[in-house]
Amino acid sequence: MKLHKLAPMALIALTVTVASAQGFYVLGEVTHSTASLDGSSFDSQLTLNGASSLSSSSNGNGNKWRLQGGYQFSPNLAVEGGYIDFGTANYQATYNGGIAQGQLKAGGLDAAALFMLPLYSQVSVFGKAGIVTAKVQSSLVAGTPADLASGSASATVVRPLIGFGANFNLTEKADLRLDYDHVSGLGNSGTTGKMSVNMLSVGVAYRF
After folding, report:
1. Residue 20 to residues 78, 116, 197, 208: CA-CA distances in angstroms?
2. Residue 134 maps to which CATH number?
3. Phi, psi of 17 (to 5 degrees)
4. How far is CA 164 from CA 7, 65, 130, in A?
5. Domain residue limits at 118
6. Across the strands, what pairs with 161?
């Protein structure tokens, strides 16, 4: 086929691609979160109440979910927001005469801008920057003696969110979506303690 016949077809294909890249969409994803807990707040509560020879550790891995709504202005820019469950980080400690367990969990609303780069007609990659308003809740219970430390606390914090990912076009209306996101400093050092979260997510975006 001659080049002068290919040019109009390429223009039509580009127009369809650009048009389909604009408009509202919803996104549902399953998220695997890895939480890193700063246990110094829990350690302090125990030592201030008399715990000696304290040794503590923490872990936090789990599968959660996220639900987002967004608007794509062009093939290169979109904004979205919704709810993210960041999961739970668990704390364990031993000391002379007893043990203690605690946890910190967080979830909240996010808003982010996506800066997108189409690679092929059906594949694009993106970087993401935004903010999260999260409610953080913590609890600490000492086993023996039971009154050494026991209680709960909560805080609401606003933290930056950064990430990157890719979209894979499945149909005219649906995309497979892969995300990596990072949020640090979820919590308050003096009350709830803090954790940082890395999230790997996979889901489907549907365009209206």
Report:
1. 13, 14, 33, 9
2. 2.40.160.20
3. -65, -45
4. 34, 17, 12
5. 3-207
6. 130, 183
Q: Are 34 and 62 in contact (CB under 8 A)?
A: no
The pTM is what?
Answer: 0.81
The CA distance from 115 to 127, in Å, is 5
Backbone φ, ψ for residue 128 (5° rounding): -135, 140
Residue 170 DSSP symbol: -
For 205, phi and psi rounded to 5 degrees? -105, 135
Tokens of 52: 């000696």
User: Where do we find the tokens 């967080």?
Assistant: 106
DSSP type of residue 121: T
Q: Where are the beta strands (DSSP E) in 42-171?
A: 55-59, 61-74, 77-95, 98-120, 123-142, 150-169
User: In angstroms, rounded to a whole number, what is the distance separating the alpha carbons of residues 61 and 33?
Assistant: 6
Single-letter code of the amino acid located at 182: H
Name, in order, each residue with C-beta under 8 angstroms of 9's C-beta and a sequence gap of 6 or more. Answer: none
Locate 168 and state its tokens. 């894979």
Domains held by the chain: number: 1
Q: Encode pLDDT of 129-185 as tens digits.
A: 999 999 999 888 887 665 666 778 899 999 999 999 999 999 989 999 999 999 999
Phi/psi zone of residue 84: left (φ > 0), alpha (ψ -120 to 50 degrees), beta? beta
- Token pair of 124 as six digits: 């694009």
